TrEMBL record:
Name of the protein in its database record: Uncharacterized protein DUF3429
UniProt keyword terms in alphabetical order: Membrane, Transmembrane, Transmembrane helix
Highest taxon above the source species: Bacteria
Tagged with keyword Membrane: yes
Bilayer-spanning residue ranges: 50-70, 82-99, 111-129, 141-161
Residues in the signal sequence: none
Pfam families (UniProt xref): DUF3429
Length: 163
């Protein structure tokens, strides 16, 4: 069994953390109105940090839900529905709590809180899929540090709203 993630998985995962890190950093930058110069199209401006954390967080959370469905499809007995039911629960959480908060234009702090709780819960499910041997042997080696970085970035974004 491979305990170390494939190099390409490590590289793509690290690249996937960059928007979280950028969102956390930008959440502390430019609290005032920054208007880009006419004719310029900046990729990001200071007040984009929280929006990046919220929207990119929802995208990645949804992506992780799909990973669980893939794990469930590897179950040795497809007539036992528990791995599929567990795989669907995070998507329902994303819809009812995270997505609805975004659509209702709830306070960004609420969205960040739901994302933080959600990513923490995903890690618990990661452990469960690993325990029942549906996740790759190296999965937790990758997921634990990545989840720590994501939760830290979301927490920093929440903290920036209070400063």
């Amino acid at each position: 069994m491979i305990k170390r993630p494939p190099l390409f998985a490590i590289l793509l995962t690290a690249a996937g953390l960059l928007p979280f890190i950028a969102g956390a950093v930008l959440s502390f930058a430019g609290k005032g109105e920054t208007i880009p110069a006419d004719g310029s199209y900046p990729l990001m401006v200071g007040q984009d940090g929280i929006g990046i954390l919220c929207t990119y967080g929802l995208v990645i959370f949804s992506y992780m839900c799909g990973c669980f469905w893939g794990f469930a499809s590897k179950a040795p007995n497809p007539n036992k529905p528990l791995p599929y039911i567990i795989a669907v629960l995070p998507a329902l959480y994303a819809f009812f709590y995270i997505g609805r908060s975004l659509l209702a234009q709830a306070q960004h702090g609420d969205v960040l809180l739901h994302l933080t709780v959600g990513f923490t819960a995903l890690l618990v499910l990661d452990f469960w899929y690993q325990k029942i041997n549906l996740a790759p042997a190296w999965w937790m080696t990758l997921r634990v540090p990545v989840t720590c970085v994501v939760v830290l970035c979301l927490s920093l974004g929440s903290f920036s709203l209070t400063t």
